[in-house]
Amino acid sequence: MSVNTPAGPVDSPELDIEAIDLSDRDFWAEPPAVRHAVFDKLRAERPFAWFAEPTMEGMEAGPGYWAVTRLADLDAISSEPAIFCSGQGAVSIQDIPADLSEFYGSMISMDDPRHARIRRIVAKTFTPRMLEQVVDSVVGIVDDVLAEARAKAEAGDGTLDVVADIAAPIPLRIICDMMGVPEEDRLLVLNASNTILSGGDPELTDEADPLTALLEAGMAMAELMGRLAAERIENPTDDLTTALVNSEVEGEKLTHQEIASFFILLLVAGNETTRTAIAQGLLALSENPEQRARWMADPSMDKTAVEEIVRWVSPVTWMRRTATQDGELNGHSFKEGDKFLLFYAAANRDAEVFENPHQLDLSRNPNPHVGFGGHGPHFCLGAHLARRELAVTFRRLFEICPDLEITGEPARLRSSFVNGLKRLPARLTGQR
Amino acid sequence: MSRVQVDRDRCVGSGVCESLAPEVFELDDDGVLQVHREEPGPDDLDAVRDAVQSCPARALALAE
């Protein structure tokens, strides 16, 4: 594949800032070069850019939002959760009813102290020290998935789909193991995650209108959780689902709905983001063969390379905050109730912070990216797990599938929220 | 003498400090951060500074 064009922004001096509309769904179907050219323009000329909200059927459009594209501004907002709260919704631009927002966002859409109390239930499982204990199982799962992908390709015409055969099953199996989701329910988890994060991409919502599809996926996951929770109350194990059903917050057990939404959050977040980093990371390596060769030859680069992949891919494009009071930030005045969309994907290419931001540099160090979120209470719970999964996956890929070659254009998810790929065609050349 | 300060309202139990300075920091079974040496000795100081700087929630400080 002749993909030596950098994934950086296209040079487009004629780009009209007044014509930019981040609420336009079609914008999110554009290739990364277009997306980053727009982010560059906004960051340089209008770091707090105001946009009208996207329309959504059955919902009244709200007042609009500020798009934040500079890393310094984004991090300042993340670090002040009392002024820029999450409780009015962090994963939806529109104000959706609080119960629905909390159901799909769980603690992402909560503020402290409740957020912290809920997060502590599972925090320990995701610390670096505890994750040391699951390293072996991560290696085992990655090796199994890669061996299956290899066998499948070799049994056929040598081709495979990086997303379906490698990037999706690895994090799916790992998070389902941690949660105790049995084998036969994992397809349901995969499909429901896809729907919940489809951003209304018509291919993933099966003709149904996006809101109905979202509700149905949520109900399917809640039903699965109900079944597992009942089993865990009878027979506790050491998995995360047992921790959820047994935990108490302020002396009270979590409600069925709280457990369900927590369960959905862990499964969806644990699945989708790492899948995107693996698939988009492999695409980036194929576009930068010299970087790939260096990393392959030098395992001591794993740490910096993984951080750079996360910066480069920015699996989650944005999260929302809402101002709880009037104020001013870095010279920008805002009013209580103003919404801010923190564009991690834009901040991660901020030339004020990163030298040659549109160049993939797997040895970049330091790399203060915000791919796991800015500083603050909502910093990605799964960051250490994700780093571990990515380091193991790429290293084992270099060993088990060194002949993997991307053969065509990726099918990109039309979503403003996650930077997902639906498909990425590849083949094994057999030259090892 | 340097003293470790934890902002309990900010700590989310990410465990980054524990991984960098395990002699000083430990998350207990409830995910609450315990500080074993509030006044870390000279051997711990580099690791503690690293932990303070790396805390994703900016919950740690070292008063020197």
What does this structure look like?
Chain A: Belongs to the cytochrome P450 family. Chain A: This is Cytochrome P450. Chain A: GO terms for molecular function: cholest-4-en-3-one 26-monooxygenase activity; heme binding; iron ion binding; steroid hydroxylase activity. The complex is a heterodimer of chains A (about 425) and B (about 60). Chain A is of the alpha+beta class and about 425 residues long. Chain A contains 16 helices and 14 strands. In chain A, a hairpin with a 2-residue loop joins strand 8 and strand 9 (about 330-335). In chain A, helix 6 (about 135-155) packs across helix 16, helix 8 (about 170-180) runs antiparallel to helix 12 (about 255-285) and helix 9 (about 185-195) runs antiparallel to helix 10 (about 210-235). With about 60 residues, chain B is of the alpha+beta class. Chain B has one domain: Alpha-Beta Plaits (2-Layer Sandwich). Chain B has 2 helices and 4 strands. Chain B has helices at about 15-20, 45-55, and strands at about 5, 25, 35, 60-64. A two-stranded antiparallel sheet of chain B has the order 1-4. In chain B, strand 2 and strand 3 (about 35) form a beta hairpin. The radius of gyration of chain B is 10 Å and the shape is globular. The interface of A and B includes residues 121, 127 and 372 of A.
Write the layout of secondary structure elements.
The complex is a heterodimer of chains A (432) and B (64).
Chain A: H1 32-45, E1 48-51, E2 65-68, H2 71-78, E3 84-85, H3 98-105, H4 114-123, H5 128-131, H6 135-155, E4 159-161, H7 162-167, H8 169-179, H9 186-196, H10 210-234, H11 240-246, E5 248-249, E6 252-253, H12 256-287, H13 289-297, H14 302-313, E7 318-323, E8 327-329, E9 332-334, E10 339-343, H15 344-347, H16 383-400, E11 404-406, E12 411-412, E13 421-423, E14 425-428
Chain B: E1 3-6, H1 16-20, E2 25-27, E3 33-35, H2 45-54, E4 60-63
Antiparallel strand pairs in B: 1-4, 2-3
InterPro entries (chain A): Cyt_P450, Cyt_P450_B, Cyt_P450_sf
Keywords (chain A): Heme, Iron, Metal-binding, Monooxygenase, Oxidoreductase
GO molecular function, one term (chain A): iron ion binding
